[in-house]
Amino acid sequence: LCSLLPDLVTLRFSNSCSRSKMAMKAPLNNIVVGLSRCTRNMFAAATTPQCRTYSSHGKIKVENPVVELDGDEMTRIIWHRIKSELIFPFLDLDCKYYDLGLPYRDQTNDKVTVESAEAILKYNVGIKCATITPDEERVKEFNLKQMWKSPNGTIRNILGGTVFREPILCKNIPRLVPGWTEPIVIGRHAFGDQYKAEDRVVKGPGKFEISFTPANGDKKITVDVFNFKGTGGVMMGMYNTDESIKDFAHSCFNYAIAKKWPLYMSTKNTILKQYDGRFKDIFEQIYQEKFKAKFESLGIWYEHRLIDDMVAQCLKSSGGFVWGCKNYDGDVQSDTLAQGFGSLGLMTSVLLCPDGKTIEAEAAHGTVTRHYRDYQKGKPTSTNPIASIYAWTQGLSHRAKLDGNQELEKFSKALEKACVDCVEDGLMTKDLAGCIYGIKNVKREHYLLTDEYLDAVRQKLLQIWTPPKA
């Protein structure tokens, strides 16, 4: 077909390991209507017509499974396209599938989330799509049984560990903080605090107390927190553990050594003198006892800073360091860094567990609800899939490391390079075009639709990487 009709390319392709089908074909000129001549030429070069059957080459055998966690809305749509176009055609891969879409989480009373985390512990590699954390509006929209907690929070509390987020750098994407000439990696403590807290709304006056009952029979400790008056208010109790903080510290120190970058750890110990003070003390003790000599031999250092001071210093820096953050701080500041480096859609996110061999890779952004509403109406969308692709490549790279699978590692790196090369060649989605031209100035000729970008990445991959022979 391809040799007879060279002016046809496939817009959408679905593959489920055992079968493939052409979903839609259109003349190349129709695909690139509205693109500038320069962009049109680049897109045509990136999508040189090829037959999209994959029987002409073999697949890389992946010996051990990965755990796949499906998600919601637009990212769920893109997730399945990534699998069908960029993963399954090239890999003989066993995915242990868990549907973390909000309807199924509600149907299973969120048991599927716990089961998925347990599977990650078993198989050591989890690859997760973005999911909805329901608020009051979502409870109404989906008619939920209750307002389920963040699936990310649930999984992280089961796995423990640290979430490391690092920007994906593209030469032509301008940085909102131009002084950041090197990457900044945030290590987010992925346990406890607000993400495992109990919070309540209270009506009317009353006393809020926190109590601790020692298991050894010692005297119960009760702390008076606040006396509510009038119509009441809100209250919360949260916690963390020495074991988790120690794991967090070890992960951060080891990651900094691997990067050969200095490590900063931030808290607000001037306000939370005992809670945040415990983080500061544990980090300092572990550094002095286990890591100081190694850091000094590498010419790097560790330093604790107040969170507000650290934010200011970060903005003034040139980058090139690891920043250890408590759970909430890491949640907020990782998005700040992503946008500062150019785009929230250009950020990797990997949860590294204390055992050093278990990870969960995910997209660092949300489910792109606004684009999903357009998709439901049949409107074309230009949604950035790069972070979701990197969730797969980061997970597969770790699988390759654990299994000693060099071919899988080469494939993962090639797919990442294909994503970046396309952007640097001017083939990108609308959000990235907005970074270059300003979102108000973006024209249709400046960007590709989601399917077009995925197709360009696939073709670029086949240019820079040779699949194994059948």
Automatic annotation (TrEMBL):
A cellular component annotation (GO) from this entry: mitochondrion
One Gene Ontology term from the biological process aspect of the record: tricarboxylic acid cycle
Pfam family membership, one: Iso_dh
Site (described: Critical for catalysis): 195, 268
Binding site for D-threo-isocitrate: 133, 150-156, 165, 188
Cofactor: Mg(2+); Mn(2+)
Membrane-spanning residues: none
Gene3D superfamilies: Isopropylmalate Dehydrogenase (3.40.718.10)
Key words of the record: Glyoxylate bypass, Magnesium, Manganese, Metal-binding, NADP, Oxidoreductase, Tricarboxylic acid cycle
Residue ranges of domain Isopropylmalate dehydrogenase-like in the record: 65-457
Annotated residues for binding of NADP(+): 131-133, 138, 316, 366-371, 384
Cofactor binding, per record: Binds 1 Mg(2+) or Mn(2+) ion per subunit.
Family label: Belongs to the isocitrate and isopropylmalate dehydrogenases family.
Name the record gives this protein: isocitrate dehydrogenase (NADP(+))
Species for this entry: Hydra vulgaris (Hydra)
Gene name of this polypeptide: IDH2
